[in-house]
């Protein structure tokens, strides 16, 4: 529909834009609200229960939108606010919440059944850094070919690994065989 056709129908371009944004963000705005009676909170903080038509008229008189904030309440709670400003504040809060979240990663350390002492210490040091940074560590011993005969050596290696990191880690999953791998998962005892 062209902008001029919208104006002829009696709907302004701004109202259609507000409706499109509201649909995308799951908030009912103005005429989209279905409840016959709503609890209205106005910009000054005063509230009361009104018919939907009366509430919409109150919002129009102020040049603002009626936004359904709590649709599951009885009656639903609506606020008289500028919807664009409301959405901006919501997006800001969501962005701040995402920024404060820390996605924990699982770092992997790979061994062979007969890993040398220096290599073992080097990899254990790396695992310690990962755990101190707040990441989980998955250590695994890969058995290739005839190495499968040395499962005891792999288990001893993982036990030494757990002992070396017991001051900064706790066991999430004890050593167990998964196909041709023996794995253990450690998580940090305290977050950074």
From TrEMBL:
IF-3 binds to the 30S ribosomal subunit and shifts the equilibrium between 70S ribosomes and their 50S and 30S subunits in favor of the free subunits, thus enhancing the availability of 30S subunits on which protein synthesis initiation begins. It holds the Pfam family IF3_N. Keywords: Cytoplasm, Initiation factor, Protein biosynthesis. It comes from the Bacteria. Belongs to the IF-3 family. One of its GO terms (molecular function) is ribosome binding. Its main location: cytoplasm. Residues 105-188 form the Translation initiation factor 3 C-terminal domain. Residues 29-97 form the Translation initiation factor 3 N-terminal domain. GO terms for biological process: ribosome disassembly. PANTHER family: TRANSLATION INITIATION FACTOR IF-3 (PTHR10938), TRANSLATION INITIATION FACTOR IF-3, MITOCHONDRIAL (PTHR10938:SF0). InterPro entries: T_IF-3_C_sf (IPR036788), T_IF-3_N_sf (IPR036787), Translation_initiation_fac3_CS (IPR019813), Translation_initiation_fac_3 (IPR001288), Translation_initiation_fac_3_C (IPR019815), Translation_initiation_fac_3_N (IPR019814). The keyword Cytoplasm applies. It is found in: Cytoplasm. PROSITE patterns: IF3. This is Translation initiation factor IF-3. The keyword Secreted does not apply. Coiled coil: none annotated. GO terms for cellular component: cytosol; membrane. Monomer.
């Amino acid at each position: 529909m062209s902008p001029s056709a919208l104006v002829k129908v009696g709907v302004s371009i701004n109202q259609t834009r507000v409706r499109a944004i509201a649909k995308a963000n799951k908030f009912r705005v103005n005429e989209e609200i279905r409840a016959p009676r709503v609890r209205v909170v106005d910009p000054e903080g005063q509230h009361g229960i009104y018919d939907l038509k009366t509430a919409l008229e109150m919002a129009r008189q102020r040049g603002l939108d009626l936004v359904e904030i709590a649709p599951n309440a009885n009656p639903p709670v609506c606020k008289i606010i500028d919807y664009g400003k409301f959405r901006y504040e919501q997006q800001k809060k969501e962005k701040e919440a995402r920024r404060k979240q820390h996605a924990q990663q699982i770092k992997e350390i790979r061994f062979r059944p007969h890993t040398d002492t220096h290599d073992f210490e080097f990899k254990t040091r790396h695992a310690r850094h990962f755990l101190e940074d707040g990441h989980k560590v998955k250590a695994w011993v890969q058995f290739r070919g005839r190495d499968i005969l040395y499962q005891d050596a792999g288990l001893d290696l993982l036990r030494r690994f757990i002992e070396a990191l017991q001051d900064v880690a706790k066991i999430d999953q004890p050593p167990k065989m998964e196909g041709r791998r023996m794995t253990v998962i450690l998580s940090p005892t305290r977050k950074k």
